[in-house]
Amino acid sequence: xxxxxxxxxxxxxxxxxxxxxxxxxxxxxxxxxxxxxxxxxxxxxxxxxxxxxxxxxxxxxxxxxxxxxxxxxxxxxxxxxxxxxxxxxxxxxxxxxxxxxxxxxxxxxxxxxxxxxxxxxxxxxxxxxxxxxxxxxxxxxxxxxxxxxxxxxxxxxxxxxxxxxxxxxxxxxxxxxxxxxxxxxxxxxxxxxxxxxxxxxxxxxxxxxxxxxxxxxxxxxxxxxxxxxxxxxxxxxxxxxxxxxxxxxxxxxxxxxxxxxxxxxxxxxxxxxxxxxxxxxxxxxxxxxxxxxxxxxxxxxxxxxxxxxxxxx
Length: 313
Prior knowledge:
The chain is of the alpha+beta class. It folds into 2 domains: about 30-70 and about 225-300, Lipocalin, CATH 2.40.128; about 75-120 and about 120-220. The protein is built from 5 helices and 18 strands. Strands 2, 5, 6, 7, 8, 9, 10, 11, 12, 15, 17 and 18 form a 12-stranded mixed beta sheet that branches. Helix 2 runs parallel beside helix 5.
């Protein structure tokens, strides 16, 4: 008997088994291939990119996918625990209810104001030690220090603040830095579904002004159910991009598409309004990120821009 040959056969068999297991463990149901993008669809996208003055700086999925609706609800955290995390010294922190009945407010003159809404969303307004205070209605402009401010610096400031206070959600993943104006940035985080590793863009935002954190807003969600029985094929990513380009129209200068991916998007509801829905469904979306930080979400079943979403984030 040729033991060397038998050993090689066993090794190949084990490698094949490992590849089979990796495929089925790490390729979730949400990403099951349902067919390939046609040559005609690719050509139509290339034509539109050229016609509307856009360039594609990212790889696109070459096959169409299946997905379903996701049932979600707000994440309700214990207000007293949030207070302990956001205020380094809880002594001197007062709790009060404003005129509206749907929120509780913790206030500390030295550190700021924590507003927790009945629907689970919350915002923390950081006290400006230099004397100008941010408020829920807005904030006065601060002077940007001479040291250059940029996106990576803003992310560094946000990460340091979150680490110091221990308030970053465990399942938060860094997403993008939005630029609101000179020296004014928003560092955005998103969630991932543990069972499928698919992004859920529910948003946890750290706002930076003048090289300091001025505000944190949390719209974090609880994921309840991926509705596998309603799974269906999503539109090809090429079709979604064609639809977006037609909506945006020709550009006066060349613009680039930097990232495209499949995920879920939950609109940021105005947490200052009374909002008592216990749970709701969100559809899958194709998410498109432009070079200047503009983000667009297209319904992955219909190709339509989600309501109120065709805007700069």
